[in-house]
Specification:
two-stranded antiparallel sheet; 276 residues; globular; mainly alpha
Length: 276
């Protein structure tokens, strides 16, 4: 599957489905990012932007689909689009909503309850990450997505530094990342390809010298990963730190997200990294 397949699968309303026909925010935002990175037909890109603009909620965030009333972490994917393309006011309102969001375990009310119970927060709960949904715990992927979305926002520097520390605190023993906890029941957890890749992409290049073990883990994952999503995030993460990206086993794209991510990774390796 290639850029032509992506354009052909755009719905008449301007959005994209994961598969089938229902337009959803995540595949539409990723497809728009891929179109922006690859210089695809302007009409297709503008239709995607129009679909996304129309779905910003009153609170400034975006829902995963029309039938969901709450804004969620998919807001980060929309905000990765250039502010001048999406619209400065929409981008600003989205960033304000995203900056107001944090994992429940670092909220003032939760911390107060912990102190009243005489409990000390573990190290991984010291820094504020981002959850998938408001009112839930923070996880690696939505935190990394938020860091990518807010990287150019002038008022987000302090919060982004805290998010970077969240990612470092959640690093697994093999120096990669899984979805959230580095260990459970005193057992060290294994890292996953997709979360290792997106965490590396979100961490600044200035810290590359501290991430050499993580690069080795990412390269190991890349050599065996059969997931199109994992393969793409690994290539993007390694390339962002200037690590040479070797060839990897062929992967099969199953939906719009897979196609868009593969196009984004290919474009980055060709010198058109939209996340840079």
């Amino acid at each position: 599957m290639d850029r032509g397949d992506l354009i052909a699968s755009q719905n008449p309303d301007g959005g994209w489905p994961f598969h089938g026909r229902l337009s959803c925010t995540e595949p539409t935002a990723l497809a728009a990012l891929a179109l922006s990175a690859t210089g695809s037909p302007q009409n297709s890109y503008e239709r995607a932007l129009t679909w996304l603009r129309a779905r910003q909620r009153a609170d400034g965030g975006w829902p995963p689909m029309d039938s969901v009333s709450r804004s969620t972490s998919v807001t980060s994917l929309v905000l990765m689009l250039p502010s001048g393309h999406l619209g400065p006011r929409l981008s600003e309102r989205g960033a304000e909503w995203l900056l107001s969001l944090q994992g429940q375990e670092t909220s003032p009310l939760y911390r107060l309850g912990q102190r009243l119970r005489g409990r000390t927060a573990p190290a991984e709960e010291t820094h504020a990450g981002w959850p998938w949904y408001p009112g839930s715990a923070a996880w690696v992927t939505p935190t990394a997505m938020a860091l990518l979305a807010l990287s150019k926002h002038p008022g987000a520097a302090e919060r982004c530094l805290d998010g970077e520390e969240f990612l470092r605190a959640r690093m697994c023993a093999d120096s990669g990342w899984n979805h959230g906890s580095a260990r459970a029941l005193n057992i060290e957890a294994d890292s996953y390809p997709e979360t290792t890749g997106i965490a590396l992409l979100a961490l600044p290049r200035s810290k590359s010298g501290q991430l050499q073990p993580s690069f080795r883990t990412a390269l190991r994952h890349l050599g065996t990963c059969r997931s199109a999503e994992g393969n793409a995030w690994l290539r993007l993460g390694l390339h962002a730190h200037g690590v040479p990206v070797p060839g990897s086993p062929p992967v099969r794209c199953h939906d719009t997200r897979d196609i868009a991510l593969q196009l984004l990774a290919d474009a980055a390796l060709d010198g058109r990294n939209i996340f840079a």
